[in-house]
Write a structure and sequence with these properties.
Layout (H helix, E strand, L loop, with lengths): L2 H30 L2 H27 L14 H29 L8 H28 L2 H30 L4 H28 L5 H12 L6 E9 L5 E10 L4 H19 L1 E11 L4 H14 L5 E10 L4 E8 L6 H15 L4 E8 L4
Parallel strand pairs: 2-3, 5-6
Antiparallel strand pairs: 1-2, 4-5
Helix pairs in contact: 1-2, 1-4, 2-3, 2-5, 2-6, 3-6, 4-5, 5-6, 7-8
Length: about 375
């Protein structure tokens, strides 16, 4: 399956459907003097524009990596989602202004059977389009398509509200469609805000999910010779360009040839099974058959229980010959007094082992 072609094809379907709906709704809205139907038409037009941006973003993000951008252009999809968010937000604000004007200066709508049929048809079309787009987006891992699908399903609710306002006016003579227009505007604004918020969060760099972290670590631990996996970080350069790094713990008796074999096997397995390129695999050495080291490690583990911001330790190694102890102190990334906590633990560790050179590196919980 060609991901880009699928996104483009789905986007074109969305463009055609939304332009047709927008044209019919605008025509009916103007004829019937209905601000709600007109605002619904504006919303459909913004959806068509969003689909155009999605197609452009998909095309540009599919460009091959080059010297200047060795990780590819996948993040352009996020930039296109930002543009979509701005378009939706602008459409919502414009709709709100027009609806408020109609509340201040009301005009009596004139609904006819064609208007009701078009709005009812739009509801069915939007539900079908929303389900199709969302499902396709999930299938090809496209945030833009998933967002468009959810937006289309929201639009079906908007169209339902518009239809309800028309039926209420026909049966009771009560015109609430300007107020419905305000509600529609707020829904559009909310969609635009959420699109921007989610996309900007991805651009900043989000923590990988617990499930993803667990799966990747399981793959790495399945390689013979790996005793532990720590400091897993995955960088997202687009849905098809993921780069990862991690620390692995191995026996201190291993030589460079054995470690090289492990690293290559990890890189191969993670890429095949999870589609992630492991750009960095660092090594922690683990004491082998050293009872003094095991005892020291237990004492350090007991010591850190006094500090709520300390989540764990890893990479512990004790060398009795050179009188060295080293390990990483994993702190809560949101902790306020990181360096004070590090200094306190270091001081107590040195008091426990005054004859040793104790080296503690600060580490954070970048993933579960």
């Amino acid at each position: 399956m060609d991901r880009t072609k699928t996104i483009v094809r789905t986007g074109i379907i969305g463009i055609v459907a939304n332009l047709i709906l927008s044209a019919f709704k605008a025509f009916v809205g103007i004829l019937s003097n209905s601000v709600a139907i007109t605002m619904d038409a504006v919303n459909n037009l913004s959806d068509a524009m969003s689909s155009i941006i999605t197609i452009i973003g998909a095309k540009l993000s599919a460009k091959e990596p080059d010297k200047k951008h060795p990780f590819g252009y996948g993040r352009i999809e996020y930039m296109s989602a930002v543009v979509i968010g701005v378009i939706i937000l602008y459409a919502g604000i414009t709709s709100l202004i027009e609806s408020v004007k109609k509340i201040i200066h009301p005009e009596v709508p004139d609904y006819g059977v064609p208007a009701l049929i078009i709005v009812a048809t739009a509801i069915v079309v939007k539900i079908a389009l929303g389900l199709f787009t969302k499902k396709t987006g999930e299938k090809v891992d496209s945030d833009s398509l998933v967002a468009s699908g959810k937006d289309a399903l929201n639009d079906s609710i908007i169209s339902t509200a518009t239809l309800a306002a028309a039926l209420i006016f026909i049966t009771t003579g009560l015109s609430i469609e300007a107020y419905i227009g305000v509600i529609i505007a707020f829904i559009i604004i909310k969609t635009g805000y959420e699109t921007l918020k989610d996309t900007i969060s991805e651009l900043l760099g989000e923590r990988i999910t617990h499930e993803m972290s667990k799966e990747i670590k399981h793959v790495i631990r399945s390689v013979d010779g790996v005793k532990g996996v720590y400091d897993l970080v995955v960088h997202n350069y687009g849905s098809e360009s993921l780069m990862g790094s991690a620390h692995i713990e191995v026996d201190d008796t291993m030589n460079a040839v054995q470690i090289d074999r492990i690293e290559r096997e990890i890189a191969k397995k993670v890429f095949i099974e999870k589609g992630i390129s492991m750009t960095g695999i660092s090594i922690y050495s683990s004491n082998t058959n050293d009872e003094a080291a095991k005892e020291a490690h237990l004492k350090i583990r007991e010591l850190i229980k006094d500090y709520p911001d300390v989540l764990s330790t890893h990479g512990f190694y004790m060398n009795s010959e050179t009188k060295e102890i080293r390990f990483d102190l994993v702190l809560n990334i949101e902790a306020k007094n990181k360096f004070e906590t590090h200094a306190a633990v270091l001081k107590r560790a040195r008091e426990l082992y005054p004859d040793y050179d104790v080296d503690i590196q600060i580490d954070y919980n970048f993933s579960d």
